[in-house]
């Protein structure tokens, strides 16, 4: 339309000949004649009306053809064909054959394919993404792995390659790691932040199971450790949509560049350790970031230093300490099990579900987002770490009784009570085994405060040193009756033919 307006201006406005106009605009003489004829048929004159824009002018001079559709050429069902092509084994030739069977006068195969491909191109529309400096960091693992050879056995182990690319400048970071577990994933992020010297506003990962527990278009479930790391560095995580690699085209291209310019040149080298491989990757990464762009007179590093680094958020004062999170249900003994060790929580949380934050040195336990306990991490298998205040009051009081305290109380009650308690504790393999019996006797003192000493005297005469014996004496009232002379305690008989208790302790062989 620009040349059309110019033809009308030069011819009608400046009275130039048709051939002069054709030479001036580098068009044919017939084109000028045809344009003037169409303008005359549309009753146009110079100057053209101001409200007549290019679209309106084109519709006046070149109205769409109103030719009727040719009979026997039915429309191709593009949507149905596109859907069927997703099925395994279905081809355009097969679908064209079915189309011709239904419409014998339809399009031939070449035109059928051409029209479908023209239609399909309009579906695959790519949005050009403009990334602001310091806004996004795209992260992913490369599909290609690098073998590491054990120098002793010769066995090969494949190492994964982590890639991070800044959105605005394509400044890249890469490193190898032995696994794709959570610890490696978080560690690679931390080292990438330190390499860039700052933190972006947004991290864009794929829906890798390590970082995203449950992929979702609207509310993806981020791994708690990954989320905590983002909070520590003051950034946020926005995963790509599932099966939408174009959402992270930057890192897809970055992975391709790393594979071509770093991993491919290293393909013939043999590496005997992860550190050796990462040293080689670091050298090649330096070359990649200092290579000039093909269409820009600069390189990734210069571009990054000028544009991206000033826009990144500063690193925090301390490095993120790796921590894992675990859900546990509190057992009836108000402890949870972590790494085959037991840690206490307040007894009110029995049967409740709690979250634990695990670091190399500490265990923090949370209930509904509030920290309820903190312990130093222990590696003792089967043992327990218990805070005294986490116990119920009854358990606390029970543990306050020690052998010395029990004996001290018994002596205050009377000499016979002290004798019974001392004998109970002495006759057990471990003093704690006699705690319950002694505590039972202490409880009897509350019910029979004036009679317990007499009952213990009768128990001493009978050599009945147990809680049940003292309790029976008190219930039957034997402590209120004088003890018969023949029931009084007599000294043991010493004779060389009488076997003492040491005989039975040795299993009956006198040893």
Secondary structure blueprint with pairings:
Blueprint: H1 2-13, H2 18-25, H3 29-41, H4 54-61, H5 78-84, H6 92-102, H7 109-121, E1 136-141, E2 146-149, E3 156-166, E4 172-177, H8 182-196, E5 202-204, E6 212-214, E7 221-222, H9 224-233, E8 236-237, H10 249-263, H11 274-290, H12 300-308, E9 324-329, E10 335-338, E11 341-344, E12 353-358, E13 362-367, E14 370-376, E15 384-385, H13 393-400, H14 403-413, H15 415-426, H16 435-447, H17 452-462, H18 467-476, H19 501-505
Parallel strand pairs: 1-5, 5-8, 11-15
Antiparallel strand pairs: 1-3, 2-3, 3-4, 6-7, 9-12, 10-11, 12-13, 13-14
Helix pairs in contact: 1-2, 2-3, 10-11, 14-15, 14-16, 15-17, 16-18, 17-18
Structure write-up:
- The chain folds into five domains: 2-61; 78-121, no CATH class; 136-311, Nucleotidyltransferase, domain 5; 324-392, no CATH class; 401-487, no CATH class.
- It is elongated.
- The strands form four sheets. Strands 1, 2, 3, 4, 5 and 8 form a six-stranded mixed beta sheet that branches. A four-stranded antiparallel beta sheet has the order 9-12-13-14, with no helix packed on it. A three-stranded mixed beta sheet has the order 10-11-15, with no helix packed on it.
- It is built from 19 helices and 15 strands.
- The protein has helices at residues 2-13, 18-25, 29-41, 54-61, 78-84, 92-102, 109-121, 182-196, 224-233, 249-263, 274-290, 300-308, 393-400, 403-413, 415-426, 435-447, 452-462, 467-476, 501-505; strands spanning 136-141, 146-149, 156-166, 172-177, 202-204, 212-214, 221-222, 236-237, 324-329, 335-338, 341-344, 353-358, 362-367, 370-376, 384-385.
- Helix content is 41%, strand content 14%.
- Strand 3 (156-166) and strand 4 (172-177) form a beta hairpin.
- It has 511 residues and is α+β, with helices and mostly antiparallel strands.
